[in-house]
Specification:
This protein has 189 residues and is α/β, with parallel strands linked by helices. It has helices spanning 3-18, 35-40, 44-47, 57-64, 74-88, 134-155; strands spanning 23-27, 48-53, 92-99, 112-119, 122-129, 180-181. It has a single domain (3-181), classed as Maf protein. The two termini are 23 Å apart.
């Protein structure tokens, strides 16, 4: 795993311990790639509650409470984040689901990633498209989830403004906290 993810995890550790705030994760597409640097971060036992890797649709539905229907969707990501937060008794949870490729899933093209973050203030979902082979899509999704945790811990919301991230295609600040925010961007070349 690249050093950048470990640096993000170190920042998450410092921020979580300063608040204090416990963190939980629900992963599908990324298969543990978010949890790994968090578990390796300083004093993880003080703030990292754990991660649930729910790769199959059945596990998402039965364990995390994802409603029947597509599992590559904003609704599924939100349910995964809420489910992880509840099951792990975390103050803050992040979740990732998507279609890594080479084929799409649930009428979503390869590279589609839905993320959600959930805390006492509500659940926020984001939709991104990442280019590349499945491993690159997974790595990009994990990195973005870690960045999302840093942002939420810093100031309670995702701090990227539209136009500052090449994956933004809509006004993130225009939607309510419990609605899907962000936009679908074209895959980068």
């Amino acid at each position: 795993m690249p050093d950048h993810e470990y640096a993000l995890a170190a920042e998450i550790s410092a921020l979580a311990r300063s608040r204090p705030c416990s963190i939980g994760v629900a992963e599908s597409l990324t298969g543990g790639m978010i949890a790994q640097p968090l578990a390796a971060a300083e004093a993880a036992g003080e703030w990292f509650r754990g991660s649930l890797v729910a790769y199959s649709a059945q596990v998402k539905h039965e364990v995390l409470g994802v409603p029947d229907g597509p599992v590559v969707s904003a609704e599924a990501a939100a349910a995964m984040a809420r489910g992880a937060r509840s099951l792990l008794r975390a103050d803050l949870a992040v979740a990732v689901t998507g279609a890594g490729g080479p084929s799409g899933q649930d009428d979503q093209p390869p590279g589609t990633v839905f993320l959600a973050v959930c805390d006492d203030s509500g659940t926020q979902t984001l939709h991104r498209c990442f280019a590349g082979e499945p491993a690159a899509v997974c790595a990009a999704g994990a990195r973005f989830a870690l960045e999302l945790l840093v942002s939420r811990l810093r100031d309670g919301r995702e701090d990227r403004k539209p136009g500052t991230d090449p994956h933004d295609a809509a006004d993130d600040d225009a939607a309510p906290r419990d609605a899907a925010v962000g936009g679908r961007a074209a895959a980068e070349p």
